[in-house]
Amino acid sequence: MMLSSFRQPRSLVRTVKSSLRALSTAASEGDSIVQLYQYAICPFCNKTKAVLDYANVRYDTVEVNPLTKAEIKWSKDYRKVPIATYNDQVWKGSDVITEGILSLDDVQRNLTEKWQGTDMTMDDFRDNAKDEFWVSFTNDKLASLLYPNICANYADSYAAFGYVQHVKSFSWFQKQSIRAIGALAMYMAASKVKSTLKNKEEEETKRFRVVLFVDNHFGRFPLFI
After folding, report:
1. Triad 165, 169, 173: Cα angle to 5°
2. Which of 9, 20, 181, 225 could form a disulfide with 156 if both were Cys (CB 3.0 to 4.6 A apart)?
3. In a domain, 225, yes or no
4. By 3-state DSSP, what share of the chain in percent is helix, strand and coil, each rounded to 5?
């Protein structure tokens, strides 16, 4: 699996643009119960939104300026995204947010109804070996591969940061500075990650293919991996 196979910055920008429009529409239809502070292209933020969407949780998104992080200046001890707030609760980090969401009574009822007629239970959903494996893979492997591929060079990185043009809360100057400086910073960071991953890529690719093969053909992930 070559790194170049993941390079789709233009498609990513179109997807993010569509996502921002959809979220804006959803927010206008009623009050959201969760407020999510995010970067639109952050893998961990999108992982969190996938959980929220699956659980039918209403939420608003607040796009954070990656240069100033002014939107989360109230969070003194945690200066990363995603961060979610719900009533008087604050959850920091995608896994913590997921656990917080799944602990809500309304969410548990929604999911129980969603799973009627299946063998799925809340206990199985929250705590099973297969789930733990894929969460670990997403956090430690997949997320690390995404940025080096969407920011493989400065042009790709600049294109990926095109999402800021559709963030209404950013001024014209903020949009230009985020796109220019943010793209450069992300390209440099991605290059460093890419160099680290280069020697591991072939081994990880083979490992991932084995996992997918066993999971697809036998319905379970290989414990020996």
Report:
1. 60
2. 9
3. no
4. 65, 10, 30
Q: Say what the pLDDT of residue 24 is.
A: 46
d(CA 63, CA 167): 7
Q: Identify whether the C-beta of residue 59 lies closer than 8 Å to the C-beta of residue 83.
A: no
In sequence order, the β-bridge partners of residue 97 are none
Give Cβ neighbours of residue 214 (< 8 Å, ≥ 6 apart): 220, 221, 222
CATH number for the domain spanning 151: value is: 3.40.30.10
Largest CA distance in the chain: 53
Is residue 224, in this structure, part of any structural domain at all? no
d(CA 1, CA 49): 27
Query: What digits encode the pLDDT tens for the residues 37-64?
Result: 999 999 999 999 999 999 999 999 999 9
